[in-house]
Give the backbone structure.
Amino acid sequence: MNYEAVIGLETHVQLKTKSKMWCGCANQFGAPPNTLVCPVCLGLPGVLPVANEEALRLTALTGLLLNCAIAPFAKFDRKNYFYPDMPKNYQITQYDKPSTLNGHIDFEFNGGISRVRITRAHLEEDVGKNIHFERNSGVDFNRAGVPLLEIVSEPEITSAAMAYEYLNALKDILVYGGVSDADMEKGMVRCDVNVSVRPAGSKELGKKVEIKNMNSFSGARRALEYEIPRQIEVLTRGGTLSQETRRWDDEAGITETMRSKEMAHDYRYFPEPDLMPFEPTPRWLEEVSQRVVELPLAKKQRFMREYQLPPSDAQTFVWDAPLGSYFESLAKSCKNPKAAANWVINNLRAELTKTRTALADVKFEPVHILELIELVESKKISNSIGQQVFVEMFASGESPNAIVEKKGLAQVSDTGAIEGYCEQAIAANPGPAADYKAGKVAALNFLKGQVMKLSKGKANPNLIGEILQRKLK
């Protein structure tokens, strides 16, 4: 019997705010333990939470970026449970009336575009962090109360590879939209995986297994690559699966049982009595909508469509948004956008990296790249000379025309001069000349290279080929 996997993901994302969700403590990573705390985020008796409006804005913005409906009425609830990293013994979260519902993400997968629906994206608060030592444990509450968005997908993901691409697409959207820095090493993004298997074509879901303790998207992929075959093997052998929570051991590459026969928790949800329901006004939503940006996939598709770029170039400009904006400022005025992309990706980016220069600090004007393209395409200079001109242009800020004129780099198209170079190259390299005459066409490229050296890269390459062929007949 063939089996198929059914996967749903719960992704927790810290929002990019300056302060925490219910108090004025800084939302900041890396401070000494328990230095960014106050009575509110420590849950001391008698304190009152006040909602962070920027977190509410970012939640609505996320909903718009994920094609969700923004609820006209949302409320916060108390989710009651005891755990050492939750100082109040309850978490303030959104339960039955979340801020955003029913969205979707489109992303590239298996050579096409896949879509996974989003059930909800609800706002809550993060918990503290348990730190385990050899003989005891501690809790750092700096993270407690940081605004956290839980994004829940429908169980529509069918493989580990698809889950990995979904997570990366989600992260790219959140970073692009300015919702979160999504730095996994700082715990800003965490993911829980729900996975089951069932006979292929069946509509009934199998027993759900939740996997925790994954510190990276690649860890989530590896956990699924282990867990899906494990479940299939159990069923193939005639065994049964039970609903349980398992932990991922990244070092061993296996999942292990944490809690078995787990049913739904009774969290005793009830409306948070200290917070009013949230009813966004049309004006407030309009202000949030002004912050919506073009999504990474849409931008890539537009760059390919409008500027005829190959997918690799378009993806480069998606990954590096400032470089993409720089390219687009050129492409709108360029007859050959692909040439502009080549100079920006292969030359400008390389010089920025080599010299550790910020894009904003580049000395030359963007229009100078268009000028350089024109010099090369009109054959006034060769491409190799163009490379030299770019380096000089980057270092000095001078225009390409000024550099070419000052250094005498204009391409030589004088037939007599090039014939002289060709004769020198043939005389100095009788072996390759004889090879070409014997039918070895590749030998001509070697001789062309010698002519270019003699002319210091200035000779017209097309004329070199014509003259060499004529002289070697």
Remarks:
- The first strand starts at residue 3 and ends at 14.
- The chain has a mean pLDDT of 91.
- Residues 40 and 47 are 6 Å apart (CA to CA).
